[in-house]
Write a structure and sequence with these properties.
229 residues, 0% strand, mainly alpha
Length: 229
Amino acid sequence: MEKDRQHPRKRMRPLASGQLAPPVAVVAAVILALLAIGGAFWLDMWAGVVLLVYLGQNIAYSFWLKNIVILDVMVLALGFLLRVVAGVVVVQVTNFSPWLYICVTLLALFLGFGKRRQEIVLLEDGAANHRAILSEYNLPLLDQMISMVVTATLVAYTFYSFDATTALAHAKMLLTVPFVFYMLARYLYLVHVKHLGGAPDELLIEDRPLLINSVLWAVAVVVLIYVWK
């Protein structure tokens, strides 16, 4: 809570702002965790196992791993990957391209390093007061890693679209690559020029070009799979 209070936006969170009492948050967290894990095991045993791993990963991150440079972002990316794994287990996908795992992981790394960069730009000398690990990063290092990851993301998605047997669209999915390229390029523009990127989920909704591009990508996917036979 004290670290969140050092951030201009996170200080408005319920706990940091004092709107929510810590005991209530603890009780709610325990109850919700038990309900979620119980529900996952009820759906599928392996879904429950994945959720237990996800819970362990979050606890390890909160108390230890978030203080290890580079590994902190890798652990966050693992969380996104585990969500995909849980979905695959629950819906029992039989024809799944492993390239999607790679795409999700790389995209999560891209967003994670972008968020670290935005925090340093926003908080400047006070960045380490909010998040200690930020003292281990600098802008040149983050820019290098973002460039590396964004290139790998675009290449991985291209291979995924070419190998998209899951979507039953085959090489036609290559037509969606320009949308992904624009999304990555637009996000880089927002990070480097507009100094945004601290909340990727909010940015997707607030930035109209990103939102329109995402809708067009979704429409293109549906047309390629279900209309263009």
